[in-house]
Amino acid sequence: MDRVIKQRNMLKGEIIPPPDKSISHRAIMFASLAKGKSRIKNFLWAKDPISSMNAMKSLGVDIEVTETSEIVVYGKGLHSLKESEDIIDCGNSGTTIRLLSGILAGQPFLSILTGDESLRQRPMKRIIKPLSMMGADILGRKENSLPPLVIKGGSLKGINYEMPIASAQVKSCILLAGLYADGETTVIEPHKSRDHTEKMLKSMGANIEVNGNIVKISTQRKELNPFEINVPGDFSSAAFFIAAATLVKDSEVIIKNVCLNETRTGFLDVLNRMGGNVEILEQRNQAGEPVGDLRVKSSPGLKSVIVEGDIIPRLIDEFPILCVLATQAEGKTVIKDAKDLRAKESDRIRAMTTELKKLGVHIEELEDGVEIKGPCKIKANEVYSYKDHRIAMSLSIAGLLADGETKIVDADSVDISFPEFYSIMENLQN
Ligand code: S3P
């Protein structure tokens, strides 16, 4: 499905972003390993976390959805999963296939995991290598590099693993296998990635310790405790409207109930350096995470910035929308050290360079990022989402600035993480 975006003169109103995707995936998977009844409120009903829910169901977990769309998971413990009768389809979701592989490596049965066209091209050596070192029998297509994956789980041993790149999916995969492995498993990251797995497993009683970029977990002999969680709003989804309210003149938007976990909010730090106007109205705690309401006002005089190094994992999913912000900043913005963006739902460096050029942006592709010279006048045109939710949403926000109609081809990819994206956008007052 395509979508036409019209220029907007101002955006006003209050929005609630969708529940956090990373936390929703983890809640459904980890509750399935606990012993007892867990309740998940405000689960993200979008394609990606639904892939995780269906995967756990096919592994024999009893999952119920209440009339109010809450999820009740009747966990029967760490060793209660059953072999799936069929291939498990992880859809478009890297988080599902990578985290689940860690869990399945520790199960005494065979599993086959696949996904859509995009997922079947995403690199899996990064999990196959450490899981094999732990003793798992795991195979993939193209010399063990791509899905489908065949996992013959069994007994594992703990390892000490230095990750070549920061990745919460890889870290979480190894930690989950570590629950089942003999002895201690240690993961060391070059830069710290999102830490929802560590926080949630700790709250369930796992033997997990975090020391900067080093995480240690040891064999889980006691069962994990069930939990109740109210999933907070997704910062990565909120980021599209933070950018929209910053860029569209005369705007003021309140974004409620946003998860402000430090490992996720690099985009806010960068926007601050650019001269953005975001106020955190009320900070509180929800589901073991800091949460706040944000007031965002338009900021006409944005300045260019250099974004590199440690901050990259803290804004990895915000790269496409950060490119859109940079189109309106005075001077040359450089984003680098982000080569892994080529291995996301699409090659996001190539996708944003190609499509923003069609909108008249002065953008150059680097091997590990982009250079953007701003401010640019955005010209309406037809652009392609590459069936990547974050590319579709970023180009749609760029379209709000174009004089004329911008057509986003395959815009329905927003359903992966933010099904209400377009209705929220339309409901903001003009
Ligand atoms: C995620 C980790 C990140 C991120 C993805 C969600 C997670 O991927 O890009 O959208 O929930 O763990 P990588 O681990 O590949 O960086």
Structure overview:
The protein folds into 2 domains: 3-19 and 232-429, Alpha-beta prism (UDP-n-acetylglucosamine1-carboxyvinyl-transferase, Chain), CATH 3.65.10.10; 21-215, UDP-n-acetylglucosamine1-carboxyvinyl-transferase, Chain (Alpha-beta prism), CATH 3.65.10.10. Helix 10 runs parallel beside helix 12 (389-399). The model has no long low-confidence stretch (mean pLDDT 98). The two termini are 25 Å apart. It has helices spanning 21-33, 47-58, 94-104, 125-133, 141-144, 168-180, 196-203, 235-247, 266-274, 319-326, 348-358, 389-399, 421-427, and strands spanning 3-6, 12-15, 35-41, 62-65, 71-76, 88-89, 110-114, 137-140, 146-152, 156-157, 160-162, 181-182, 184-188, 208-211, 214-218, 228-230, 252-259, 277-286, 289-297, 306-307, 331-335, 362-366, 369-374, 382-384, 405-409. The radius of gyration is 21 Å and the shape is globular. The protein is of the alpha/beta class. The longest helix is centred in the first third of the chain and has 13 residues, at 21-33. The protein has 13 helices and 25 strands. A 4-stranded mixed beta sheet has the order 2-17-19-18. A 4-stranded mixed beta sheet has the order 4-5-3-16, covered by helices on one side. Bound molecules: shikimate-3-phosphate (S3P). The site of shikimate-3-phosphate has 12 residues, from helix 1, helix 3 and helix 6.
